[in-house]
Automatic annotation (TrEMBL):
GO terms for cellular component: membrane. Residues 264-291 have a biased composition (Pro residues). InterPro entries: RDD. The lineage of its organism: Bacteria, Bacillati, Actinomycetota, Actinomycetes, Kitasatosporales. The chain crosses the membrane at residues 24-48, 54-75, 111-131. This is RDD family protein. PANTHER family: SLR0254 PROTEIN (PTHR38480). Keywords: Membrane, Transmembrane, Transmembrane helix. It is a multi-pass membrane protein. It is found in: Membrane. Residues 245-307 are annotated as: Disordered.
Length: 307
């Protein structure tokens, strides 16, 4: 695992891509790029047949630089590190701090890729990737980037630890509508990995996230609660609210709900007819008649038929 920390103070558990997956991604990218380059070269040869040799050579060099160097740089910049080959293999290029790459990172990687991949047929890139502890080639070293795996097996997913029992329901009145999804993700990632961090680093991260969460909710965090416990309690409160909303959207109407026509069936008793639209008459305050002698025995179902 790569020990990276993002700008939101979240420890990322990134899995650096190794040589086989990176080689497959580069091979797929080269197939696509060379196919485009051959098509562009054929088109230029047909369009510049009337030009002299110097002009044709200049156009050929320009096409080489544009297609084999410029296109990969543009694709990685616009896709934030996901080329076609990397997308197929579940890889992505990120910065050393875990953030998305920019044009300068893609430019350095693409320029050095011409030397270590195209001119040496990938020998230099393979040697550098094998020597590096995180599988980085020279372009990644000079650009400050890292190729990581985005697809993690489902079995490796971790659960958020619950808060202390004495915090259950304490933040029921907290307004969580202004908390963005990115902050929720940061808090969840911290809670699932806080046991792997140094205690001082873990406390500092929890305090920073608790401060951000308190700013979004408009209510300061209680000073008598540890930051990690506060984060866990607020996350549990959010999960409880989502569960209540999901349950309320799918549960049928309760028999005690006013105006509900739902009535649970009673074994051995035929269902009652549907009530009419007219209101039922109000019964008189007369003394109810005694039940007949034949029906004094209570049925096995516990239901007593009306008199």
């Amino acid at each position: 695992m790569s020990e990276l920390v993002t700008g939101e103070a979240v420890a990322l558990e990134l899995r650096p891509a190794r040589l086989p997956s990176r080689a497959l991604a580069v091979l797929l990218d080269l197939i696509v790029v060379f196919t485009v380059y051959i098509g562009v070269s054929i088109g230029l040869a047909a369009a510049t047949a009337s030009l002299d040799d110097a002009a044709q050579l200049a156009l050929a060099i320009a096409a080489f630089l544009l297609v084999l160097v410029g296109v990969p740089i543009a694709v990685e910049t616009l896709s934030h590190g996901r080329s076609l080959g990397k997308l197929a293999c579940g890889l992505r290029v990120v910065r050393d701090d875990g953030g998305p790459i920019r044009f300068r990172h893609a430019l350095v990687r693409g320029a050095l890729g011409v030397v270590e991949i195209l001119m040496t047929f990938g020998v230099v890139a393979c040697i550098a990737s094998l020597i590096s502890a995180r599988g980085r080639r020279l372009g990644d070293v000079f650009a400050g980037t890292l190729v990581v795996r985005e697809r993690v097996p489902v079995g490796q997913a971790r659960f958020v630890p619950p808060p202390p029992p004495w915090l259950a329901g304490r933040f029921a009145e907290l307004d969580l509508s202004a908390v963005p999804d990115g902050l929720w993700l940061a808090v969840r990632q911290y809670l699932t990995r806080m046991q792997q961090l140094d205690p001082q680093v873990s406390w500092a991260m929890a305090a920073q996230l608790a401060g951000d969460l308190a700013t979004r909710t408009g209510t300061p965090a209680p000073p008598d609660i540890p930051p990690a416990a506060y984060l866990a309690a607020v996350v549990q409160e959010r999960q409880a609210r989502e569960a209540r909303r999901a349950f309320a959207a799918h549960v049928p109407a309760s028999p005690t709900t006013p105006g509900s026509a739902y009535a649970p069936p009673v074994p051995g008793v035929p269902p009652a007819p549907a009530p009419s639209a007219a209101p039922a008459p109000v019964p008189s305050p007369a003394v109810p008649a005694a039940p007949p002698a034949a029906s004094t025995e209570r049925p096995a179902t516990g239901f007593v038929p009306p008199a």
